[in-house]
Amino acid sequence: MDKNRIEGALDQAKGTVKEAIGKVTGNDRLEAEGTADKVAGKAKGAVGEAKDAVKDAVTK
After folding, report:
1. pTM > 0.85: yes or no
2. Could you give the CA distance from residue 56 to residue 14 in angstroms, rounded to a whole number?
């Protein structure tokens, strides 16, 4: 598993927590940061998946 996939999952989890805290407290900025972290995490995860796919294709 590529490190980007792991980092992406962590970013998504962090973003989910920030977003939830922002909603509960009414902090729009924190909620937006959480949403941005989730999007960045998804992007990192996609990069990691692509790298894994390339590695698998090369080894076969």
Report:
1. no
2. 29
Residue span of the structural domain in which 18 resides: 3-59
Which among 5, 17, 1, 20 is positioned nearest to 41, based on CA atoms?
5
Question: How many residues belong to the chain?
Answer: 60
Rounded CA separation 26/9 (Å): 25
Task: Please give the tally of structural domains in the chain.
Answer: 1
- Burial status of residue 45 (CB atoms within 10 A of its CB: 0-12, 13-18, 19 or more): buried
CA distance 40 to 19: 14
pLDDT band at 60 (very low <50, low <70, confident <90, very high): confident
pLDDT at 24 over 90: yes
